[in-house]
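Risk register update: the risk of archive-format incompatibility is retired. Evidence:
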Amino acid sequence: MAQKFPEGFIFGGATAAYQVEGATREDGRGPCVWDEYMNRPGARFNADPASDFYHQYKQDLQLAHDFNIKGIRISLSWTRILPEGEGKVNQAGIDYYNKLIDECIDKGVEPFVTLHHFDTPLKYFQNGHWLNRDLIDKFVAYAKICFEAFGDRVMKWATFNEPWSIAQNGYLAGNFPPNETFQIEKAIQIEHNLMVAHAKALNLYKSMNLPGRIGIVHTLEGKEAITDTPENKHARDLDDAISNRFMLDACYLGKYSETTMSLIQEILQKNGGRLITQPQDFEDFAKAAAQIDFLGMNYYSSHFLQAYDGESQVVNNSTGEKGTSVFCLKGIGARVSNPDVPTTDWDWPIYPEGMYKQLRRIAQDYPNYKEIFISENGMGYKDDFEDGKIDDTPRIDYVSQHLQFILKAIAEGVNVGGYYIWSLMDVLSWSNGYNKRYGLFYVDYATQKRYPKKSAYWYKEMSRRGELISADELAD
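Archived output:
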């Protein structure tokens, strides 16, 4: 018997401004942190033209329409709207996003708009980044401009995409700017400051009586003890606290629970750090927690944790050479491979059950959650292009497995409103450039021509039927 999705379940596609737009120097756009980083001496790739969405968006939205994709995640480039990050508004940026949003609506592809997807204005990055609390009010002022300009038509807003990635990749793993490693105190402080900025922007939106809904997008990495020992389970809990629980508490409890704070304080004590907060932060948290409309959940993989007493060490696999990753954090634990769980070429465990466990965990631990969207999930793959045909059956299998666990969670009462595959078309990867592809549509970066992959035809049929189908059924 076919597994049906709920009525109104959205089959969408996800993008991010910096990864798809290109046109980084066009129409008055100012520099963001990634412009400097990707144009540094020795950089392997940069964001021009990326997927040229700035010029090709009509074509991409037509493809979305033709393939029955009902929603698209887009993000707004802060420096396309405010080239200096503040001050004078760039009307060309407002005009572009107005045209893009109107085209989405015209094509029947609902826009799900994220205010900040990693692309902090360069001058703010150079002035302390999210460690500098002055940036919180700058972000809220930017958000207000966006709400006023687009809030009459945008019905889904997210404040931030993946605050944990900003902290982890920039300050622990070192594969995002500023490329710092093992700065655990900074990472935790940044998470807190981002949650304050989220709460303030959400509360502002709610005060404006706009017709849409607002939430946040978190990357929720599953955490499992590699074996069932007290030490390994504690390592799991520590990693979960810094990666997930700390920020989920802020968003949904409106405070940090005693259990969460004891784990965070243990991590800070072992690394010689402390967390600085202000009383007003928790008033803002509590007000936002009572008003948040939905959670966007990005899920790609889970981690298997082992107790670890050594110094921090990280090796990032950015080339797809399997088995080269190392991730051990002092005072937390070591992420290790599980021989029973397959991995991608980039060492990401393929563990769809972890998505199900996180969905159940949200419903259980944060019963005021209202609704969850899977705002990103997908498989990075080295697609083979043969005469305009791309058979990406492994991607179909990957997504199918995750959708099965989403359906299981829905059947058990979790309210999941949609699935946004990462990504709609092939995009620039932050740390892998253009050789790691995720899209339903293949982009020939030399010509910017789009080619539907086998997964696009499968996704179209699944959306049309409203039920999970296999790659084999597509052939029928």
